[in-house]
Structure formats: C-alpha cells, structure tokens
Amino acid sequence: MTAVTSVAPFMKWAGGKRKHCARITELLLQGRQRIEGAYHEPFLGGGAEALHLLSMSVLPAERFILSDANRELAATWCCVQAQPQALTARLDALARAYAPEHLEGEEAIAHAEAFYYKVRGAKGKSPVAVAARFLFLNRAGFNGLYRVNSKGGFNVPWGHSVTRDVVRAESLAAVHRVIAGAHVSIQRTDYLDAFRQAVAGDIIYADPPYVSAAKAGKGFTAYTPGGFLREDQVALATFATGAIERGVRVVLSNHDTATVRDLYHEADGWTLEPVGETRRINSNGAGRGKVAALLIHGGGR
C-alpha cells in the first residue's frame, strides 16, 4: 500500500492509534484501493484512523459516519467541522487569559492554576464555548487525560504547565479541511448504533476503552459518567460478531488479556493479531510503558 501522510489529530487522547494506522488501514481495506460501503468509527476519540483514511481519499464521498458517546468530544469535532475560525479565536482568548504576558514566575504559576480550575468549573453555553473549553482542558490538564466523575463532571487536575500553546490553529485548520464536507457525518450516539446501522460492504473500526490490563477494578474507563464496564465489552463483542456474520468488515483494538480472548473466538470468524503499544497518556507514570495489545479483525469480502 502506498505510504500516506495523514492529517494529525488536533488533540491528545488516551490510547490514540496514529502509529498503528497503516496496519489498521490494511486490515480494513483487505488489499482494495476503494470501499463501496460506509466507514463507521464509534469511539471516535482523537480520530487518528478516520483522519488517515480521509487523507487517502479511498472511500465514497458521502460515507464517513464518525461518532462518540462523549457529548463534549462530539461537540468539539462538530465545531472543528463547522466553525474552526471562531473556535481558534476563542482558544486564543483563553490562552492569553491563562498566561498573561505581564506575569512571571510564581505569580504566573498561581494565576494559571487558578484560571484552569475556573475554566474546569464552568460550563460552555454555545457550541464554540463548549469546544474551546474542551480543548483548553485537554491541553492544560494533566497529561491530556479526559476523565469524569459519576455525575459527568470533568475532574482531571491541572497539568502544571504555563503556556499559550493551547490554540494550534494550523492543526485545527488541517483537520477542518478533511472533515468539512457533507460526506463526513459526526454524531453523538451510543457505540452500538454503528453496528446496528452497518450493512454488508461497510467497514467499522472500533477502539473502545480497553479491558484493564491491571488487577480487576483498577482500569481507567471513565470517559462517560457510567464508565465502560464488562457488560459493555460483552455487548460490543456480540454486536461486532453479528456484524461480521452479515458481511461487515470489522477491526477492533483492545488489550491482550484472557477476557478479550474469551470474547473474540476464531471459530466465530475473528483473527487476533498481537501488537506492541506504547501507552503515551496515563495518570500514573508507571503506566506509560509498553502494554500488550491486540488488533481483532473479521468479516468482509
């Protein structure tokens, strides 16, 4: 397959798959240069694979369906798609307020910390305000984590960085260019909707919150108020297996654990491919090394 220079995601997202995009794309396309069905990506997150495929221009014009259950994340993608200039201006104002030029040293640090928690405690009232707050917290918060409590409140602590590097206008503009058309639909929806909607000839890439590679109960899955629990993993595997049985090409990512291997059996049409993966974003520094992961694929053709 010809090498592709893909557009980079516009934000940090735990478990981003940019370094695995080439292999994921090979598994999705199965040697084809073009797919005649739709591309679905629930668990959109940073959207590295979607952006990679959009950079390749391999799919029919009206057939990208990108979705996530996280309301603020989906709203941010929609804002990048429809209002990138207004979003950039709002981020620039936040950056200047966060790190005023006239403050230095301890005074600048104290101001930045207080400003971060002020923004964290506020709620955006317009789509642009919601998206700007989301990206500001993503870039100024600890390690780019996104975590909410049981009531849906964002609760990641300040990242101890005093910087204006929260705008990244060029990155936002580059992503806008590839998602601006009506051929890209961005939705806030349940992850199972992608599998319900998919028909023979479609392709799906699903990158859910991973089954914990640590002890039971120690995994981090709080991207939505209810978390992503074992029963969600079971439902995902059930719907994914149903999709490949009706001719949908499905590729998933997850940790290489006994739980995952119990959910996806070769007898049901799945191939499990071990891959090494670096966890780049984690609240615990000890958790940022290599972890065993799988690419799970089946269906199509």
Characterization of the model:
The chain is α/β, with parallel strands linked by helices. It folds into 2 domains: 18-69 and 193-217 and 227-298, 3-Layer(aba) Sandwich (Rossmann fold), CATH 3.40.50.150; 77-170, Adenine-specific Methyltransferase, Domain 2 (Adenine-specific Methyltransferase, domain 2), CATH 1.10.1020. The chain has helices spanning 21-29, 48-56, 71-82, 84-98, 105-121, 127-140, 169-179, 192-197, 230-245, 258-263; strands at 39-41, 64-68, 184-188, 203-206, 249-255, 271-278, 290-298. The chain has a 7-stranded mixed beta sheet, with helices on both faces. Helix 2 links the parallel strand 1 (39-41) and strand 2. Helix 3 crosses helix 6 and helix 4 crosses helix 6 (127-140). The protein is globular and about 65 Å long.
The major beta sheet can be summarized as: 7 strands, mixed
Strand order in space, largest sheet: 3-2-1-4-5-7-6
Say what the CATH topology of the largest domain is.
Rossmann fold
Helix and strand string, N-terminal first? HEHEHHHHHEHEHEHEE
Rg on CA atoms, Å: 19 Å
**Unreliable residue stretches:** 215-221
Based on the structure given, which CATH architecture of the largest domain is correct?
3-Layer(aba) Sandwich
How many helices? The count is 10
Assembly status: single chain
Q: Helical percent range?
A: 25-40%
Approximate shape: globular
Structural class: alpha/beta
Give the distance, in angstroms, between the N- and C-terminal Cα atoms.
18 Å
| Number of DSSP strand runs | 7
- Mean pLDDT across residues: 88
Strand content: 5-15%
Main CATH class of the largest domain: Alpha Beta
